[in-house]
Amino acid sequence: MVKNYIIAIGGSGSRCLAATVYLSAAGLFDNHLHVTIIDPDQTNGNAEQTRKLISSYHALNLCEQPARPRDRRFFARRSLADPAIFRPSINRKGETGDQYGYFWQDPNSPDRTFGDSVEFVNAPKPIKNFAKLFYEREDLEMPLGKGYRGRPNVGAVTLISDLRRTVGNPHSALGQMMGSIRADVQAERPVRVFVYGSVFGGTGAAGIPSVPRLAQDSIAESNTTHHEKMRFGVAMLTPYFTFPAGTAVAGPAPNSSLQQVATQAALLHYGHNDPGYQHVYVIGAPEMAPTNKNYSIGGESQENDPHYVEMVASMGARDFFMKGEFSRNQRFMHYVDGDHVGWRTLPCQSEQDQKEVKRKVVAFATFCFVYKHLLHDAVSDGDWLRRQAWYADNFIRRGYTLETSTDALNSLNQFCDGFLRWLEKVGAPLAEDSKPLFNWSALAPGQRAETLTGQLSATLSSGDPKYPKTGYGHIMDRLSRLTPTYDGDVSPMGLFIYLLYQAVGEFCDDNYALD
Amino acid sequence: MKEVMSNQVVFILQATSGQSRIAPILVDRWFSELAPWIAVLGASLGLLVALVWLPRVLPIPHADDARRARRRVLAALCFVVILSAGSLLLYASLVYSFNNRIYPFAVVFADVFMTLKTFTLILIAISSFLAVVALCSRFVGRRSYRYMLIRW
């Protein structure tokens, strides 16, 4: 089983990972994923949201969908598409339903200061004087429990040593990830590690150069000669959002007006000191959008809104994992210089791949939209359900029921709600775009869901959809026609997810001329 | 006015009784000749409804699609009854020749249309219509309302 590895550093990294989970759910990632969030700000709101999202995804990933589905029409069989959504597992332990940890537990006290971490008090005087050349008193007294507050010079020293202390622990998320990488390396499987991090803040900028070193050192310790097979990619996020200026915060604090300068400094440093990534995706936004109404130095209150840059970063990870062989010594930099965010400007392998990406994202958005706004309440109603022909054929006659899957239906509802909110926020900075990825205004929760189902996007040639007003009807009509046979066991929830997505996919192909 | 109307009724009754009646054997022959055709008419209308009109019933949220389709079938059935009855009446009075003779409308109405035979023909139309609709909706196209008439 080929696995891909993702390390998300800091709050921005966590939000990129959230985008990856959503795109994974949409079927854009083929291989199983092993992810770890590294954030010294252990209660960070963004990281917490992503942790909940991964847990919710995992529950839906465990629903068994049909294997080798096929349909019979007029005595002829046709193969149906294999299950596409919620397919790659995230941190799944073998075939069990358990998960590896996905959040790096910092063993330190949240009150520990930078001075404590470098044992400044006990240092000889010459060392103290030397350190004072590079660090102000506020830096040395800064508590590290809420991240590095835009100070990569603090984070670079502290993070790598903290990570090294936990990387050998087989019970920590990082230790488990390294164990899995080690197993892959020893089995001579190709290992690709992708890192998300911002270069304008503290944690990401400090963590980005640390990860390849940490991973290679960790694998090299296991006396294997195959660690040359490891490949690293990174999404370096340059400034893309702003937040209000902080007031009455003691000590160093993040400041969005300094992001550009910090980015230049970080990139200059990486330019002179190769951080060890073969593929670098430099991603930013020409106009910085506010993603938080309140100022927060970290902790639970740091819950920034999603941004399209995070989706692009996630597409960068996908692009990296899909690439063919490349050597350890090669270096590639990827960026897009344009004035428009569209399906054609997302990192993709080919024009065909761009179409596939659009097809999958639009179909998954429609799936979530239909389920969240139109089907969830109805499916929870047993009387309505039993009157549906698709339910009678695929469930009642085969001895399945959805009426006992209330928890799974609620999980799906929450996931769909989260995805639609995420997508709406992703589109917020693109509202004025002339060729939008989505009809952003239709994604907002609210009325007329039935008539908006077929208007969530435009055709590939930016034309009008075929069924702008009757999307729901056409989807359910297609759902009614599906009575597939398949191999293996399914769970009722997995079967429902498969059938609905299959119907939605066929509808989107037709409605948006995607095939 | 009342007098005028009663005079007209008397005139019609006189006219009817003044004409020779259509022999029942001719009505029987009319029935046997028309029965297959009325069945075909019912079936054709059934086919039209099942393949063209019913598929336009697209599911809507929270609704019972089978019930919506049944309502549509009921409306179509009313149309079938009216159409078949009207056709029978017009055919019998204007086209069909009972023993090489065209009878006046009132005679045809009383001796042919208002008989059990005509009702039987209409029932044949209804039956063939419903049979075709039921079979087509159940076995052709796998629509959301496929169990509206046949529940297995």
SS summary, helix count of chain B = 5
* Number of E strands of chain B: 0
Low-pLDDT stretches of chain B: 1-18
Distance between the termini of chain B: 60 Å
Radius of gyration of chain A: 24 Å
The helix content of chain B is over 70%
Largest β-sheet summary of chain A? 6 strands, parallel
Multimeric status of the protein: heterodimer
Biggest interface in this structure?
Answer: A-B, 23 and 15 residues
**Mean pLDDT across residues of chain A:** 87
**Approximate strand percentage of chain B:** under 5%
**Total beta strand runs of chain A:** 11
Strand-and-helix sequence of chain B, N→C? Answer: HHHHH
Distance between the termini of chain A: 30 Å
Strand portion of chain A, in percent? Answer: 5-15%
Shape of chain B: elongated
Which structural class do the helices and strands of chain A define? alpha/beta
Mean pLDDT of chain B: 87
Task: Name the poorly predicted regions of chain A.
Answer: none
Summarize the structure in words.
The complex is a heterodimer of chains A (515) and B (152). Chain A is an alpha/beta fold and 515 residues long. Chain A has helices at 10-25, 45-61, 114-117, 125-134, 137-140, 152-167, 173-186, 203-207, 210-220, 259-272, 308-322, 351-379, 382-386, 389-394, 406-427, 440-443, 449-452, 471-481, 492-511; strands spanning 3-9, 32-38, 67-73, 76-79, 191-198, 230-237, 241-242, 279-283, 289-290, 332-334, 485-487. A 6-stranded parallel β-sheet of chain A has the order 2-1-5-6-8-10, with helices on both faces. Chain A is globular and about 85 Å long. The two termini of chain A are 30 Å apart. Chain B has 5 helices and no strands. Chain B has helices at 2-18, 24-53, 65-95, 105-113, 116-139. In chain B, helix 2 (24-53) runs antiparallel to helix 3 (65-95). The chains are: A alpha/beta (515), B mainly alpha (152). Chains A and B meet through helix 12, helix 14 and helix 18 of A and loops of B.
